[in-house]
């Protein structure tokens, strides 16, 4: 005989008929008013209900509901027992037995109400003394325990035997209904209390060994629990869950679905007022608007204490944590729509929300939206609490947020001062990782540590001033007025190759992987292999000095003093397009693989289609030479000698912002750089300014030379996520030539 049984949770009852929910709360003592002379009449009515239940059997769902008749359960029992095996069969059968008991109890309640309506309140109520009530309670407890054990032991008996046991149980319960003890409104009868007490005793006696799953029983005041008989091992139910009604239709159903049916309403022990049931039936018969109107009038006539009682009952049902009710995957999907700042606030809601908000994949997506490409791995001194996991991506976002805050309003610490190149001009500046490379017209390049501020190497070899440079990893390439390019090892300071070929100053260059393209005042461009030092291609076509060049590995774009912009195929050494339109020298150039943007001394900026060579937009607004530009994701920032900086959308040709106002530069803009949040600009006025990219608002001065306005100049700037490097000096000796390194980094403990 299979003893490993688990009593499943019965499904919540369907939507009650009008007045039914209140009929369940009728005083159970009314059962005592029924005389023995009515028993035969009740039995006949019961048989009629059973026969009517059999007629509807074929239309019911496989899982019975709380309103199914006894005959339906008996008739379907044999078919189900043939379909299930083992533990599933046991669970199904025990579930049916419980449904039968609940149906019988509900019929008794309906009959009590009908009899009460027939006899009125004038009939004499027969009640038993408190002593007899206690005896009934103890008897009911013993009977319930014996009945549960008997059902488990005799499960494999024939269906006829099971039907006989049901009839005996029905007779016993009928007697109990005739001799019930008085109970308070909203409370269960003694037999049901005996069920609860028996379940608690069994649960406490077995708690030292096992915690058995419990079966909920819906009593008059809500579902209670009764554990499986002590000594029986639980087994899983067929589906793991007992089906619930699709959607709660009344507030009572909502409370039961929310699992808060055990919260009793605080009602004093008085009998229901006369006419309550009739009023409830009338209320249920009204339309929706009529019900709302009636409730409005009812609330208006309530006292504050009564309204408070209603709030205590209603409010908890609508304060649900919907996130905790969802599977983790869906909960994370919902949270993914929050901004990172809102997500951090949501983590403070409760423990479970904090666990969800620490999800590493969730924060990885947030970091990628903010342009953070790598997680942050930090050493934590504190032990992480159980249930919580450290998210490197979340740490990376928090760190970046604090860094941005430092840029905006953090205290600017004293910068590191890197002195070198004496009083010469720093003509080119590169910054990669923790290495800074500066080139000067003193014929040298210097390699600096951005961490310590020390000069690591001085690269000596050129015989003329250095006017252009590029750096990648440990490779540095420099171009000079001595008409050569040199390839250096940044670690050792060794010159690996000297590239000969140009016949004038190497004024510009662009490095892509293993190849570098150089432009010279000799009007030619050359493509070099930096590993071998060989000149691979020579691009000829300009008729004046080449001032700027861009290279994406497939095409070369060059701008020159002949007012022309040319697009080249370096492999065939052919000019694909000559972009004509400027009326003066081209000084600056940007190329993103799709668009070519050129800045000229004619004050205009032109946007070209690299495939067709057509001019898409002409950007006007500056008043002088466009000395510097930077292009990212169709956003162009241009700096001009007229002291203004403009932000453009090259897709539409619209000027989004002009960085000016009372805090604008007072002299020509020499260099600029921007990221997703900020624009950094330098000027001949000796200042470095920080601007908001989106709004165009001035944030603050990052550098302000004391000699600014009297000769002090910021020639070049280069910035990383956490550091800013400025090359400063003067043309009249008022400011010493040096590099300033500002650090905005933060540490997470």
TrEMBL record:
Coiled-coil parts of chain: none
GO terms under cellular component: cytoplasm; nucleus
Low complexity composition-biased segments: 197-209
Domain F-box positions: 320-366
GO BP terms, alphabetized: negative regulation of osteoclast development; positive regulation of oxidative stress-induced neuron intrinsic apoptotic signaling pathway; positive regulation of proteasomal protein catabolic process; positive regulation of ubiquitin-dependent protein catabolic process; regulation of circadian rhythm; SCF-dependent proteasomal ubiquitin-dependent protein catabolic process; ubiquitin recycling; vasculature development
GO MF term (any one): ubiquitin binding
SUPFAM superfamilies linked to this entry: F-box domain (SSF81383), WD40 repeat-like (SSF50978)
Domain of life: Eukaryota
Record's compositionally biased regions (Basic and acidic residues): 17-34, 69-86, 116-133
Annotated spans, Disordered: 1-265
Alphabetical list of InterPro entries matching this protein: F-box-like_dom_sf, F-box_dom, WD40/YVTN_repeat-like_dom_sf, WD40_PAC1, WD40_repeat_CS, WD40_repeat_dom_sf, WD40_rpt
Pathway in which the depicted protein is active: Protein modification; protein ubiquitination
Keywords: Nucleus, Phosphoprotein, Repeat, Ubl conjugation pathway, WD repeat
Pfam families tied to this protein: F-box-like, WD40
Compositional bias (Acidic residues): 35-48, 134-175
Residue windows of the WD repeats: 433-458, 459-498, 499-538, 539-578, 579-618, 619-658, 662-701
Compartment(s) where it occurs, according to its Swiss-Prot or TrEMBL record: Nucleus
Protein name: F-box/WD repeat-containing protein 7
Organism name: Ameiurus melas (Black bullhead)
């Amino acid at each position: 005989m299979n003893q490993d049984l688990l009593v499943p949770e019965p499904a919540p009852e369907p939507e009650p008929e009008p007045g039914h929910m209140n009929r369940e709360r009728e005083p159970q003592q009314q059962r005592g008013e029924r005389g023995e002379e009515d028993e035969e009449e009740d039995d006949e009515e019961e048989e009629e209900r059973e026969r009517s239940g059999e007629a509807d059997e074929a239309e019911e769902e496989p899982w019975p509901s709380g309103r199914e008749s006894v005959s339906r359960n008996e008739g379907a029992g044999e078919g189900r027992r043939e379909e299930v095996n083992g533990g599933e069969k046991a669970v199904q059968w025990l579930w049916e037995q419980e449904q039968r008991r609940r149906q019988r109890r509900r019929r008794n309640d309906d009959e009590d109400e009908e009899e009460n309506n027939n006899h009125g309140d004038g009939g004499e109520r027969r009640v038993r003394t408190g002593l007899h009530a206690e005896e009934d309670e103890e008897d009911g407890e013993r009977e319930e325990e014996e009945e549960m054990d008997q059902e488990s032991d005799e499960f494999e008996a024939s269906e006829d035997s099971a039907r006989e046991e049901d009839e005996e149980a029905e007779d016993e319960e009928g007697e109990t209904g005739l001799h019930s003890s008085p109970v308070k409104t909203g409370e269960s009868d003694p037999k049901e209390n005996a069920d609860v007490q028996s379940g608690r005793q069994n649960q406490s006696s077995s708690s030292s060994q096992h915690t058995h799953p419990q079966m909920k029983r819906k009593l008059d005041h809500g579902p209670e629990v009764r554990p499986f008989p002590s000594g029986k091992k639980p087994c899983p139910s067929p589906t793991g869950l007992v089906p619930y009604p699709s959607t709660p239709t009344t507030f009572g159903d909502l409370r039961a679905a929310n699992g808060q049916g055990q919260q009793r309403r605080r009602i004093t022990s008085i009998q229901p007022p006369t006419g309550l049931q009739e009023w409830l039936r009338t209320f249920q018969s009204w339309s929706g608007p009529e019900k709302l109107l009636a409730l409005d009038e009812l609330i208006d006539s309530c006292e504050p204490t009564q309204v408070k009682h209603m709030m205590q009952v209603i409010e908890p049902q609508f304060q649900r944590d919907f996130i905790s009710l969802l599977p983790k995957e869906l909960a994370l999907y919902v949270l993914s729509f929050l901004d990172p700042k809102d997500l951090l606030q949501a983590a403070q809601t409760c423990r479970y929300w904090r666990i969800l908000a620490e999800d590493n994949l969730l924060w990885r997506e947030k970091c990628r939206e903010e342009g953070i490409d790598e997680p942050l791995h930090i050493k934590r001194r504190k032990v992480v609490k159980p249930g919580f996991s450290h998210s490197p991506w979340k740490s990376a976002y928090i760190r970046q947020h604090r860094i941005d805050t430092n840029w905006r309003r953090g205290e600017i610490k004293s910068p590191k001062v890197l002195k070198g190149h004496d009083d010469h001009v720093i003509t080119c500046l590169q910054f990669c990782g923790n290495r800074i490379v500066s080139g000067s017209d003193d014929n040298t390049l210097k390699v600096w540590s951005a961490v310590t501020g020390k000069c690591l190497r001085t690269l000596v070899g050129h015989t003329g001033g250095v006017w252009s440079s590029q750096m990648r990893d440990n490779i540095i390439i420099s171009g000079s007025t001595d008409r050569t390019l040199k390839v250096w090892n940044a670690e050792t300071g060794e010159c690996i190759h000297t590239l000969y070929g140009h016949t004038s100053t190497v004024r510009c260059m662009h490095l892509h992987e293993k190849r570098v393209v150089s432009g010279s005042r000799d009007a030619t461009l050359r493509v070099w292999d930096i590993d071998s030092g060989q000149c691979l291609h020579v691009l000829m076509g300009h008729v004046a000095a080449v001032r700027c060049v861009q290279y994406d590995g497939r095409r070369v774009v060059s701008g020159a003093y002949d007012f022309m912009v040319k697009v080249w195929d370096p492999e065939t050494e052919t000019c694909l397009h000559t972009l004509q339109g400027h009326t003066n020298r081209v000084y600056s150039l940007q190329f993103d693989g799709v668009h070519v943007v050129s800045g000229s001394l004619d004050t205009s900026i032109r946007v070209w289609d690299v495939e067709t060579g057509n001019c898409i937009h002409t950007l006007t607004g500056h008043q002088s030479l466009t000395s510097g530009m930077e292009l990212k994701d169709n956003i162009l920032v241009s700096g001009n000698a007229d002291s203004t900086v403009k932000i453009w959308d090259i897709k539409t040709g619209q000027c989004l912002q002009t960085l000016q106002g009372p805090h604008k530069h007072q002299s020509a803009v020499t260099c600029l750089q921007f990221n997703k949040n900020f624009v950094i600009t330098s000027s001949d006025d000796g200042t470095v300014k920080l601007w908001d990219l989106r709004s165009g608002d001035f944030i603050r001065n990052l550098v302000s030379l004391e000699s600014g306005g009297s000769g002090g100049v910021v020639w070049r700037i280069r910035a990383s996520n956490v550091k800013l490097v400025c090359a400063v000096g003067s043309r009249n000796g008022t400011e010493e030539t040096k590099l300033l390194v500002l650090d905005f980094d933060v540490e997470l403990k």
